[in-house]
TrEMBL record:
InterPro entries: NAD(P)H_nitroreductase (IPR052530), Nitroreductase (IPR029479), Nitroreductase-like (IPR000415), YdjA-like (IPR026021). This is Putative NAD(P)H nitroreductase. FMN binds at H44, W141, A142, T143. Binds 1 FMN per subunit. Residues 23-169 form the Nitroreductase domain. It comes from Maribellus luteus. SUPFAM superfamilies: FMN-dependent nitroreductase-like (SSF55469).
Length: 190
């Protein structure tokens, strides 16, 4: 895509739901470029707290199967996760070509508060999102309500927390942006 400025890219970025993404593969080079740009996000004390797990093809199918099995087992044990939510999540994994698990590594030495690590990961995700937009790709940050159940599925290490999945793919069709409200109440010039 041809954009003339960063402002144009920022405003063109959309949360593109999985159903609007094409299943067509995205090249490894493009995924690597998203990840490279993610790593340039600012981060306090250079902790680089982002951990990304990339699922495509067979690994994505295995992730979908693991999710269906483990989430169903948890549900059967009485964990309050709705069957249709699990089915929707697993269905979305099947629809998209790339699913990137977004994980934050909390600093085990507690040199900085957790929110700063989460903020840095969020900035890394925005870098990926803007890069995808610049390439004409759609992306979506999905935060299933049962994130804590992913510790086992994603084999998370001590101090790691899942913050959702980032889906990327070619877009089936453009659709209108929700836009933004008048920002005056959100801003105070002092
Ligand atoms: C941390 C984060 C989590 C999100 N999780 C979801 C989600 O689980 N489901 C969803 O429909 N949208 C989710 N979104 C996307 C928002 O719905 C979307 O950004 C908002 O509707 C504005 O649309 P736009 O990004 O296209 O401007 C998430 C966004 C962020 C930043």
């Amino acid at each position: 895509m041809n954009y003339n400025s960063i402002s144009e890219i920022i405003k063109a970025r959309r949360a593109t739901p999985p159903g609007m993404l094409m299943k067509k593969e995205i090249s490894k080079e493009v995924i690597e470029e998203l990840l490279e740009n993610a790593s340039w996000a600012p981060n306090h004390k250079k902790t680089e707290p982002w951990r990304f797990k990339i699922y495509t093809g067979e690994s994505k199918q295995k992730l979908a199967d693991d999710c269906a099995r483990i989430l169903e087992a948890k549900r059967a044990e009485g964990y309050p996760v709705a069957e249709e939510k699990v089915a929707k999540f697993v269905g979305n994994l099947q629809k998209v070509p790339v699913a990137i698990a977004i994980v934050v590594q909390i600093d085990l030495a507690k040199r900085l508060p957790e929110w700063e690590e989460v903020a840095a990961v969020s900035m890394a995700v925005q870098n990926m999102w803007l890069t995808a937009t610049e390439k004409g790709l759609g992306a979506f940050w999905a935060t299933p309500g049962f994130v804590e159940l992913f510790d086992e599925i994603l084999e998370l290490q001590p101090g790691q927390k899942m913050l959702g999945f980032f889906y990327v793919g070619e877009v089936m069709m453009d659709y209108p942006s929700p836009g933004r409200r008048d920002q005056t109440p959100n801003i105070e010039w002092k």
